[in-house]
Write a structure and sequence with these properties.
This protein is of the alpha+beta class. The chain has helices at about 45-60, 70-80, 85-95, 125-135, 135-145, 160-165, 170-175, 245-250, 260-275, 280-285, 320-340, 365-380; strands at about 5-20, 30-35, 35-40, 65, 105, 110-115, 115-120, 195, 200, 205-215, 225-245, 290-295, 345-350, 360. About 40% of the residues are buried.
């Protein structure tokens, strides 16, 4: 069945004080060069994880990203009273029986899978029950493998379709954010969400924070502190962007649109409210967005990141957020002129300060905006 294209674009400006939300290999805040200036940078993977976990918590439908499925199954079988050797063999069979060739594993680490799997959280219990149903076959195969002199890799014992069915099951968040299983193509799910890395709209270099830790039990003659170090933090107003392909999400839901509006609203809410948790204990960077702007279109998504290719200059009285608001509003006007509004279904914003009409309907709260996004994303009216 043909489904018309429908995209929900979300644009956010969010000031963040001294923080290290997403660190690099040297434990320093990530940066990137854009417009010939260094900007603070937060990877999309970092922010997307917090968004995914928030959606899963509200739905009470967790997923697990892991390479430890066989070891976890082995531990569950041991807890259920299975002998050590049989539990380990059964766990290996989970990977061996998943496909015709089997999933690649590391035998020195409890047959941990080489590839990361994204699975429903309850998959371990389901696979435990499958092993219980096939215990006799597993015992016989283990005895045969133990008696064999050649010690070749054992053949698959568990029913492949049953194992594959568990590994390719989809949670709602998998339908939303997608999944790639290179060794199990039938488990691939094309993501309905695309998320850009966040970056500061102005120049922002990491700044040093020299700190000491006091020795509370000093010995006579001790001087100085027990620990000295320099941490690096960054500050700035970040531009964040994500787009939801509502058409692809509907396909991933296999046409079951019950609860689709609530899911879009939930995604919007958690995109607004989520925050990476790096160094949260020592920085508590729990700010909220200053501005959230959305646009629903029926042609293609449009990022406003190019609005900030030229770094924003601070206001005469200080601060980047107010000038960034104006830059984004001006760029939206430019986009509407270049692209036109015929394919735009709706647009609006919620902000600390009401803005000009180029950002559409003003909503009083993020909750109101999230509901409006979901309603507009599913409207059947012609674009205007």
């Amino acid at each position: 069945m043909h489904m018309p294209a429908r995209f929900l674009d979300l644009h956010i400006l969010q000031p963040v004080p001294a923080a290290n939300l997403n660190r690099d290999g040297d434990n320093e805040p990530k940066t990137i060069q854009f417009g010939n200036k260094i900007r603070g940078f937060i990877s999309s993977q970092s922010w997307k994880r917090e968004l995914r976990l928030g959606v899963e918590r509200d739905l009470d439908e967790p997923a697990a990203r892991t390479r430890r499925l066989p070891p976890e199954v082995a531990e569950a079988l041991r807890q259920a009273g299975w002998p050590e050797d049989l539990a380990a063999f059964a766990a290996l069979q989970i990977a061996r029986s998943a496909t015709k060739e089997g999933l690649k594993t590391n035998s020195r680490e409890g047959h941990r899978t080489q590839a990361i799997l994204l699975l429903p959280h309850d998959v371990t219990g389901e696979l435990l029950a499958l092993c219980e149903d096939n215990r006799t076959q597993l015992e016989e195969a283990l005895a045969e493998h133990t008696a064999s002199e050649k010690k070749k890799a054992p053949p698959a014992v568990l029913p492949t379709k049953a194992v594959a069915a568990q590994l390719t099951r989809r949670t709602t968040s998998i339908k939303l954010f997608g999944r790639m299983l290179a060794e199990l193509p039938s488990g691939h799910v094309e993501a309905a969400v695309q998320m850009a890395p966040a970056f500061t709209v102005h120049e922002s270099d990491p700044q040093p924070d020299y700190f000491t830790t006091v020795e509370d039990w000093p010995q006579p003659g001790d001087k100085g502190s027990a620990h000295l170090q320099t941490a690096f933090l960054t500050t700035g107003t970040f531009y964040r962007y994500a787009t939801l392909n509502v058409t692809d999400l509907t396909r991933n839901l296999r046409g079951n649109t019950d609860g689709l509006k609530e899911l879009i609203e939930l995604f919007t809410w958690h995109f607004i409210m989520s925050l990476p948790q790096g160094k949260k204990t020592s920085t508590a960077p729990h700010t909220l967005p200053d501005l959230v702007h959305y646009a629903v279109r029926d042609s293609r998504p449009i990022s406003y990141s190019a609005a900030f290719e030229q770094p924003v200059k601070a206001a005469p009285s200080g601060g980047y957020t107010a000038p960034a608001r104006q830059v984004l509003a001006d760029y939206a006007t430019t986009i509407n002129r270049l692209v036109g509004t015929r394919r735009r279904i709706a647009h609006g914003h919620a902000a600390s300060t009401a803005l000009a009409p180029q950002l559409g309907t003003h909503h009083n709260s993020f909750e109101d905006l999230a509901e409006a996004c979901a309603t507009a994303a599913l409207t059947l009216q012609d674009p205007q």
